[in-house]
Design goal:
By secondary structure, the protein is mainly alpha-helical. It is 49% helix and 9% strand. The strands form 2 sheets. A 3-stranded antiparallel sheet has the order 3-4-5. A two-stranded antiparallel ribbon has the order 1-2. The chain is extended, with a radius of gyration of 28 Å. The protein starts with 18 loop residues before the first strand and ends with a helix.
């Protein structure tokens, strides 16, 4: 019997298990290190909605109608604009901007994991859009590792705590100490754009510089010079 290998990734932001199945031995080899990781927590986006409703100064029911179902990049930009309009302190605006930028990067990574073709190779999860890209040479490939997914999960928790504290600050000293500790910690996930190895960068130095357009008077003068030269010949 021909040996078959299956790889499985559950969608909707949750990676249950990624493993190989040997049809000959009937043994299932799993990668337990990836099991249960949920780096793309929807509850983190809930904190963005909480902050948007607070900054809008609208009744909760109306704010939910306006912001409900809105895509994260659009909602994040609206939150930034409202924060600038309200002239929030610079340190608070910077914190909001940092959290939104990090969450958007993680959401992009999550989108690629869920909606692109995946396979396990050499203990790593390879994700690519080569099957759906318009041009093969422009296809992208990413590698997901256990540590990277754990870092995204950790950052999502910190983003939620920081944004929810801004949206609904508490007077508890324990909560305040936890917030300060989380705020001072650096981001663990470092965003790296997907690789497109088949695309070659254009060498701009090899291009011939374009001559500047001559003025109308210069063109007329050049035409008269050519006309005079031809008449003398």
């Amino acid at each position: 019997m021909k040996r078959r290998v299956f790889n499985r990734v559950l969608c909707h932001g949750t990676t249950r298990w990624i493993g190989r199945f040997d049809a000959r031995s009937r043994d299932k080899i799993r990668y337990p290190a990836l099991r249960g990781h949920r780096p793309f927590c929807h509850i983190t986006e809930a904190a963005v909605h909480m902050l948007a409703r607070k900054l809008s100064l609208l009744p909760d029911a109306k704010a939910r109608i306006i912001f409900g179902g809105m895509r994260l990049p659009d909602l994040a930009e609206i939150v930034r604009q409202m924060a600038r309009l309200d002239a929030l302190p610079d340190d608070q605006y910077q914190e909001i901007d940092e959290c939104l930028t990090q969450l958007t990067d993680i959401a992009t990574k999550r989108h690629n994991l869920v909606h692109r073709t995946s396979n396990v190779f050499d203990g790593k999860l390879m994700v690519t859009n080569i099957m759906t890209s318009k041009v093969i040479n422009a296809s992208q490939t990413e590698v997901f590792e256990v540590e990277e997914m754990s870092n995204m999960q950790s950052d999502c928790g910190r983003i939620y705590l920081r944004l929810s504290h801004i949206a609904k600050p508490t007077k508890s000293k324990l909560d305040e100490d936890l917030y300060n500790a989380v705020r001072m910690a650096p981001w663990r996930y470092k965003h790296v754009p997907p690789k497109t190895p088949n695309l070659k960068s254009r060498d701009k130095s090899s291009k011939t510089p374009r001559a500047p357009n001559a003025s109308r008077a210069a063109r007329r003068k050049e035409a008269m010079k050519r006309a005079g030269k031809s008449s003398s010949d």
